[in-house]
Amino acid sequence: MFKYSSFAAMFMCIAFPAMAQAPILSVPPNAPASAEADRSNPAAWQAAMPSLEIVAAFVAEKDERGENGEHIPRASVEFASGEEVYFYVSFANVARNPVGQPGAEFLISLRAQVRSATGEPLSPWLDIHRYSGSMTMAPDDPEYFQSWITGGLGPELPPGQYQLALEFTDLFRTELGMDAPVEVVFDLVYP
C-alpha cells in the first residue's frame, strides 16, 4: 500500500474543500514540566520536560522554499495514487543523548497508517523510518530540545477520501510514560 520514497519517510496530507484544512494534532501530555527544573542543567531539564510535542505539521512543497529557506505548505490539495507526498513536522521536548554533551543525538521513530475519511483503520500500523541526527547547537541554546524532520510517502490508493496518520515516538525518552507516541492526521484526496 505504501511506496517508500526519499531517505526520510513521511506521510502526506491534503484537504478537500469539504474536509479539514489543518492537521489534527494529538499530543497527550503525560507529565507537566517541573517548576523546579533548571534550564542551565540540561539533564535535569530533560528529565522534567513533558513528552514529545508537535509544534507544526503540514504537507510541504518539496522543491520550493520560502524567503528564508523555510519549508512552505503545498498549494495543491490533490495527489495521484503513489505520488510522493512530502511533509514537514517540527517538535518540542525532544530528548538528547547524551544530554548536554557536544554532538548529542536525537532518535525519533515514525509509523504510518491509512484510515478511511471517518478515521477507521484501512491498514495496520507500518514501521516506516527512524530519524536520527547530532546536535550542532550548545545546550544553553533555547532551541536545544527542538527538532524538525521532513520526508515523503507515496500511498497507492484508489480514488477517494482518506486519512493518513503519522505516529512519532521519542526513542530516547525512557522514563515511565514519557515515550508515548504523538500523532498527526492529515486528510487525503485522490481524484
Tell me briefly what this model is.
Helix content is 4%, strand content 42%. The chain has one helix at 42-48; strands spanning 2-5, 24-26, 53-65, 71-73, 85-92, 105-116, 126-134, 147-155, 160-170, 182-190.
What does it look like?
This protein is mainly beta. The chain has one domain: Coagulation Factor XIII, Chain A, domain 1 (Distorted Sandwich). It has one helix and ten strands; from the N terminus they run E-E-H-E-E-E-E-E-E-E-E. A five-stranded antiparallel beta sheet has the order 1-8-5-3-4, with no helix packed on it. The protein is globular and about 50 Å long. Mean pLDDT is 82; it is low at 4-22.
Give the strand order of the largest sheet, numbering strands 1, 2, ... along the chain: 1-8-5-3-4
Q: Main β-sheet: number of strands, strand sense, barrel status?
A: 5 strands, antiparallel
Compute the CA-based radius of gyration. Answer: 17 Å
What is the average per-residue confidence, as pLDDT, rounded to a whole number? 82
